[in-house]
Amino acid sequence: MGGGIEAEKSQRDERSEQPSIAKFFLSRRVLLGVVIVLLAAGVLLATSRSTTSATVPNLVGERVDPQLDGLRLRLAAAGLVLRNVATAPCPTVDLPGASLEELPGTIIDQYPAAGKEIEASGAVDVTVCLPV
Protein backbone atom coordinates (compact mmCIF):
# COMPACT_ATOMS: atom_id res chain seq x y z
CA MET A 1 0.00 0.00 0.00
CA GLY A 2 2.72 2.40 0.89
CA GLY A 3 4.45 1.81 -2.47
CA GLY A 4 1.25 2.49 -4.44
CA ILE A 5 0.73 5.82 -2.72
CA GLU A 6 4.34 6.80 -3.38
CA ALA A 7 4.01 5.91 -7.08
CA GLU A 8 0.77 7.85 -7.37
CA LYS A 9 2.33 10.85 -5.67
CA SER A 10 5.36 10.62 -8.00
CA GLN A 11 3.09 10.56 -11.09
CA ARG A 12 1.21 13.64 -9.81
CA ASP A 13 4.51 15.48 -9.29
CA GLU A 14 5.64 14.62 -12.86
CA ARG A 15 2.32 15.84 -14.27
CA SER A 16 2.55 19.08 -12.33
CA GLU A 17 6.14 19.64 -13.59
CA GLN A 18 5.25 19.03 -17.25
CA PRO A 19 3.07 22.11 -17.60
CA SER A 20 5.76 24.30 -16.10
CA ILE A 21 8.38 22.88 -18.52
CA ALA A 22 5.94 23.34 -21.41
CA LYS A 23 5.27 26.90 -20.28
CA PHE A 24 9.00 27.53 -20.12
CA PHE A 25 9.60 26.38 -23.72
CA LEU A 26 6.42 28.05 -24.97
CA SER A 27 7.46 31.38 -23.46
CA ARG A 28 10.91 31.01 -25.10
CA ARG A 29 9.31 30.32 -28.49
CA VAL A 30 7.01 33.30 -28.15
CA LEU A 31 9.92 35.51 -27.16
CA LEU A 32 11.97 34.22 -30.09
CA GLY A 33 9.02 34.81 -32.44
CA VAL A 34 8.60 38.40 -31.22
CA VAL A 35 12.32 39.07 -31.67
CA ILE A 36 12.24 37.69 -35.23
CA VAL A 37 9.21 39.79 -36.15
CA LEU A 38 10.84 42.95 -34.74
CA LEU A 39 14.05 42.28 -36.65
CA ALA A 40 12.13 41.72 -39.89
CA ALA A 41 10.17 44.95 -39.35
CA GLY A 42 13.42 46.82 -38.73
CA VAL A 43 14.98 45.51 -41.93
CA LEU A 44 11.89 46.46 -43.96
CA LEU A 45 11.85 49.94 -42.44
CA ALA A 46 15.54 50.46 -43.12
CA THR A 47 15.28 49.36 -46.75
CA SER A 48 12.15 51.42 -47.40
CA ARG A 49 13.92 54.54 -46.17
CA SER A 50 16.87 54.05 -48.45
CA THR A 51 17.51 57.20 -50.40
CA THR A 52 16.53 56.97 -54.01
CA SER A 53 16.89 59.79 -56.44
CA ALA A 54 14.58 61.38 -58.95
CA THR A 55 15.36 63.44 -62.03
CA VAL A 56 13.80 66.91 -62.13
CA PRO A 57 11.76 67.31 -65.33
CA ASN A 58 12.00 70.40 -67.54
CA LEU A 59 9.03 72.54 -66.59
CA VAL A 60 10.08 75.88 -68.11
CA GLY A 61 7.77 76.90 -70.96
CA GLU A 62 4.85 74.76 -69.81
CA ARG A 63 1.45 76.33 -69.15
CA VAL A 64 -0.19 75.57 -65.84
CA ASP A 65 -3.82 75.49 -64.80
CA PRO A 66 -4.91 77.89 -62.00
CA GLN A 67 -5.11 75.08 -59.40
CA LEU A 68 -1.74 73.64 -60.53
CA ASP A 69 -3.22 70.12 -60.62
CA GLY A 70 -1.48 69.10 -63.83
CA LEU A 71 1.87 70.35 -62.53
CA ARG A 72 1.44 68.48 -59.24
CA LEU A 73 0.57 65.27 -61.11
CA ARG A 74 3.58 65.60 -63.41
CA LEU A 75 5.91 66.09 -60.43
CA ALA A 76 4.28 63.21 -58.54
CA ALA A 77 4.86 60.93 -61.53
CA ALA A 78 8.57 61.84 -61.30
CA GLY A 79 8.57 61.15 -57.54
CA LEU A 80 8.70 64.84 -56.59
CA VAL A 81 6.44 67.43 -54.96
CA LEU A 82 5.66 71.08 -55.65
CA ARG A 83 6.91 73.38 -52.88
CA ASN A 84 6.72 77.08 -53.77
CA VAL A 85 5.04 78.88 -56.63
CA ALA A 86 6.22 82.43 -57.22
CA THR A 87 4.80 84.87 -59.74
CA ALA A 88 6.59 87.37 -61.96
CA PRO A 89 5.63 89.63 -64.86
CA CYS A 90 5.56 87.87 -68.21
CA PRO A 91 8.80 88.54 -70.12
CA THR A 92 8.69 90.06 -73.57
CA VAL A 93 10.95 89.31 -76.47
CA ASP A 94 11.53 92.23 -78.80
CA LEU A 95 11.94 91.30 -82.42
CA PRO A 96 12.25 93.84 -85.19
CA GLY A 97 8.69 94.79 -86.08
CA ALA A 98 7.07 92.68 -83.34
CA SER A 99 6.94 92.28 -79.59
CA LEU A 100 6.17 88.85 -78.19
CA GLU A 101 5.07 88.23 -74.65
CA GLU A 102 5.13 84.88 -72.86
CA LEU A 103 1.60 83.59 -72.35
CA PRO A 104 0.22 84.14 -68.84
CA GLY A 105 0.36 81.01 -66.72
CA THR A 106 3.63 79.82 -68.25
CA ILE A 107 6.45 78.57 -66.06
CA ILE A 108 9.44 80.85 -66.66
CA ASP A 109 11.86 79.49 -64.03
CA GLN A 110 12.33 76.45 -61.84
CA TYR A 111 14.57 75.28 -59.01
CA PRO A 112 16.27 72.83 -59.05
CA ALA A 113 17.17 72.94 -62.70
CA ALA A 114 15.85 70.40 -65.21
CA GLY A 115 17.83 67.18 -65.34
CA LYS A 116 19.24 67.50 -61.83
CA GLU A 117 19.16 64.37 -59.64
CA ILE A 118 17.62 65.04 -56.24
CA GLU A 119 16.31 62.87 -53.42
CA ALA A 120 12.99 61.20 -54.18
CA SER A 121 10.07 63.14 -52.70
CA GLY A 122 12.20 66.24 -53.06
CA ALA A 123 10.55 69.59 -53.65
CA VAL A 124 10.57 71.77 -56.77
CA ASP A 125 9.96 75.52 -56.86
CA VAL A 126 8.57 77.25 -59.96
CA THR A 127 7.97 80.81 -61.10
CA VAL A 128 4.85 81.42 -63.17
CA CYS A 129 4.42 84.56 -65.24
CA LEU A 130 1.30 86.69 -64.94
CA PRO A 131 0.35 89.81 -66.89
CA VAL A 132 1.22 93.09 -65.22
Write a concise synopsis of the structure shown.
The protein is of the alpha+beta class. 42% of the residues lie in helices and 27% in strands.
Task: Describe the fold and architecture.
- The protein has 132 residues and is an alpha+beta fold.
- It has 2 domains: 1-50; 53-130, Trypsin Inhibitor V, Chain A (2-Layer Sandwich), CATH 3.30.10.
- Helices cover 42% and strands 27% of the residues.
- It is built from 2 helices and 7 strands, in the order H-E-H-E-E-E-E-E-E.
- A 3-stranded mixed sheet has the order 2-7-5. Strands 1-6 form a two-stranded antiparallel ribbon.
- Strand 3 and strand 4 (98-101) form a beta hairpin.
- The longest helix has 47 residues, at 2-48.
- The radius of gyration is 35 Å and the shape is rod-shaped.
- The relative contact order is 0.17.
Task: Catalogue the unreliable spans.
Answer: none
Q: How much of the residues is beta strand, in percent?
A: 25-35%
H-E string: HEHEEEEEE
CATH class assignment of the largest domain? Alpha Beta
Going by helix content, strand content and strand pairing, the class is alpha+beta
Query: What separation lies between the terminal Cα atoms?
Result: 114 Å
**Tally of helical runs:** 2
CATH topology term of the largest domain: Trypsin Inhibitor V, Chain A
Largest sheet: 3 strands, mixed
Total count of domains: 2
Q: Into which percent range does the helicity of residues fall? A: 40-55%
List how many beta strands DSSP finds. Answer: 7
Radius of gyration: 35 Å
**What topology, given as strand order, has the largest sheet?**
2-7-5
Shape: rod-shaped
- Mean pLDDT comes to 81
* CATH architecture field of the largest domain: 2-Layer Sandwich
